[in-house]
Write a structure and sequence with these properties.
Elements: H1 13-49, H2 69-99, H3 103-110, H4 115-128, H5 132-144, H6 149-161, H7 164-173, H8 176-203, H9 206-209, H10 226-257, H11 259-262, H12 265-268, H13 274-286, H14 294-303, H15 308-320, H16 323-328, H17 335-356
Helix pairs in contact: 1-2, 1-7, 2-5, 2-10, 4-6, 5-6, 6-8, 7-8, 8-17, 13-15, 13-17, 14-15, 15-17
Length: 361
């Protein structure tokens, strides 16, 4: 005769389902308001006008404003005006995935350190359409739930690089060759990053691979109720705000102030060699732009004489990662993995831009 487990230790399947549905509903409603609906309208504008606005770096000019407080303030205002709703949604989702989604279910989906988890996470990222910084708080929540590095990295890079809306904007504004190169490059670079992270993870102690986390997700705890879950959610929201926003804001201000040094016309418009292309790709890798911001930046620079190779390097490196996004996820990935990710994106941008320049006119 079997003895049933004590009621207090039995999983509360009803609570798990409701918690997961809460997260899914928040994601669907939030993404519709912040991403899906606005991008539907912007796609029609791109098709009709072959433009989605002016460059956030330099407006309609090839010359960014002089470095200083005015440049920092102007860029930060324009950037946060473009992303603040997505940042709020990302913070909400990052806290909710930690508290209301059962770890058991999340790990079954993207918890294994293999290509399957990476593929699933990459496919899910197609719905997110977020820039790298807005994706980062969600990735932090995933990693605290012990999802694999492979899955988290595929989601982290897939959101900005595989963004279907941006590919459509790019096709109408820059040409479908650019969109095709961006898509193929994105798939290749994400696969390389995941493969390298997998190899590095296998060689690292488990304590360096696994992010700090709860013993159980709050929704899975035997004493979980509305009060305890609410407290846990508010705690995680506060932890995110304190850990992310101050440094994030400061880095955006600094990058905005330095635009004149990072994208001077003497570099961006004269990039017919490997060294100038490498510098453009390097600055693109750590600079930060809102979702689809790379499209008008490249459109403006091409109109002023930028080479195709440098333009392709920028459409790959600008959205993929940035200093602020690396800052946000710094505690949930081993430093060596983040360094390798930066290097792969940078080298990939240089190589793909240089090769594509031989064929694209």
């Amino acid at each position: 005769m079997s003895v049933s487990a004590p009621a207090a230790n039995r999983p509360n399947t009803r609570a798990w389902i409701l918690g997961t549905l809460l997260f899914v509903a928040m994601a669907i409603v939030g993404l519709y308001i912040v991403k899906w609906s606005p991008y539907w309208g912007k796609a029609h504008i791109a098709a009709a006008t072959h433009s989605i606005g002016s460059s956030i770096v330099s407006g309609t000019s090839a010359t960014p404003p002089a470095a200083g407080w005015s440049a920092a303030r102007g860029y930060a205002f324009a950037y946060f005006n473009a992303v603040w709703t997505a940042v709020v949604l990302a913070l909400l989702l990052g806290a909710t995935i930690q508290v209301f989604v059962p770890r058991k279910w999340l790990l079954q989906l993207v918890g294994a350190a293999n290509a399957r988890s990476a593929a699933i996470a990459g496919a899910i990222s197609l719905a997110g359409m977020m820039c790298t910084c807005c994706t980062a708080p969600i990735v932090v929540g995933m990693r605290k739930q012990r999802t694999s590095m492979e899955g988290a990295l595929a989601f982290f890079l897939g959101n900005p690089l595989l963004n279907p809306a941006v590919l459509i904007f790019m096709g109408f504004v820059l040409g479908w060759q650019f969109a095709a190169i961006r898509l193929a490059s994105a798939v290749l670079l994400i696969a390389v990053v995941v493969a390298v992270a997998h190899r590095m993870g296998a060689a690292l102690p488990s304590g360096e691979v696994e992010a700090p986390s709860f013993e159980l997700a709050p929704i899975e705890r035997p004493d979980a109720n509305f009060r305890t879950l609410s407290i846990a959610w508010l705690k995680e929201m506060w932890n995110e705000i304190v850990a992310i926003l101050p440094g994030y804001i400061v880095i955006v201000f600094l990058l905005g102030a330095a635009r004149a040094f990072l994208f001077p016309p003497g570099l961006t418009l004269h990039t017919n060699g490997i060294l100038p292309t490498s510098l453009v790709a390097l600055f693109g890798t750590f600079f930060v732009v809102p979702t689809a911001g790379e499209v008008p930046i490249v459109q403006t620079l091409l109109a002023h004489g930028m080479s195709v190779g440098a333009a392709i390097a920028l459409i790959i490196t600008l959205p993929a990662i940035s200093l602020p996004s690396l800052y946000i996820v710094r505690k949930v990935f081993p430093p060596k993995v983040l360094a390798a990710t930066f290097g792969i994106i940078f080298v990939g941008g240089v190589a793909i831009g240089s090769i594509a320049s031989l064929f694209v006119r």
